[in-house]
Write a structure and sequence with these properties.
This protein is mainly alpha-helical. The chain has helices at residues 13-23, 28-44, 50-66, 71-77, 88-104, 111-131, 143-146, 152-178, 192-209, 216-226, 232-251; strands spanning 3-4, 109-110. It has one domain (3-248). The chain is built from eleven helices and two strands. The radius of gyration is 19 Å and the shape is elongated.
């Protein structure tokens, strides 16, 4: 009750066009543009989704906490239990638990919030693995090191990964239900390897398109945190502007 799922592939004319293109020999950009057009209405509603905003708010609050002199106390003030933060994995797990608890209280619930949560946690985990050591290191980690993803160039990279992951997952949410029907001899995708390559190329195209928000996100957060304007309404304004930039770039075909 109260959970609004994106559901199965709609049979309106926009998604029928996507299916037609899957059956035709068209390039990936054309197919991605068609997928965006089909998902356009829902995508523009994303910044109003309570679950999506809960994830964005968590990122902003973590970014603000990372800049405090006493990072441990700042993290505890935003609900990150330090008793479980004994390692990088514990840090991510604590954030996941806090965010999951917040999302469980959001009504109406939607899959958009879960997509956003998953994209954020994956982006943060990837950052820790690539730049701050292994996610599975058991020894306690310094809070400043753990929160490095929320400062400077790392924040820019984190937000790029987050928006890339979110838009790719969102746009492929419907598409992934139809795509397996086009795998096999004589189909658009000859085999599962081709299917995997298609998904990688689709994800890459999304990554290239969301670059439009790369400079805006860390710039806005830095200014908002400095001016202590990180309340719900300010976060919602940020989400609308950031997503408007991304949506406009998809409309332009990523050019």
């Amino acid at each position: 009750m109260g959970h609004n799922r994106l559901g199965t592939l709609p049979r309106n004319y926009r998604w029928k066009e996507v299916i037609r293109l899957l059956e035709a020999d068209v390039d990936l950009q054309t197919l991605t543009d068609a997928s965006f057009f089909a998902a356009k209405t829902g995508l523009r509603r994303v910044p109003d989704d309570p679950g999506f905003l809960a994830t964005i708010n968590a990122i902003v609050q973590l970014a603000a906490a990372s800049r405090e002199h006493d990072v441990t106390a700042a993290l505890e003030s935003v609900g990150i239990d330090q008793s479980s933060q004994t390692s990088s994995l514990g840090f991510v797990a604590a954030i996941s638990q806090t965010l999951s608890r917040e999302l469980s209280e959001v009504l109406p619930r939607s899959d958009v919030g879960k997509i956003a949560q998953d994209a954020f946690l994956e982006s943060l985990s990837n950052h820790i693995n690539s730049g701050s050591g292994s996610l599975f290191q058991e020894e306690p980690a310094d809070p400043k090191q753990l929160t490095s993803a929320f400062r400077g160039k790392q924040l820019k990279s984190l937000m790029h990964e987050f928006y890339s992951g979110f838009t790719s997952r969102y746009l492929s949410y419907y598409l992934s239900r139809e795509l397996p029907n086009h795998v096999g001899p004589g189909q658009r995708l000859a085999n599962m390897a081709s299917h995997s390559e298609f998904n990688k190329a689709f994800d890459l195209l999304c990554r290239q398109t969301v670059r439009i928000s790369d400079e805006f996100s860390p710039g806005w957060m830095g200014k908002a945190i400095f001016e202590k304007r990180t309340g719900p309404e300010e976060v919602k304004k940020y989400a609308h502007i950031a997503f408007k930039k991304i949506a406009s770039e998809f409309e332009r075909g990523g050019q």
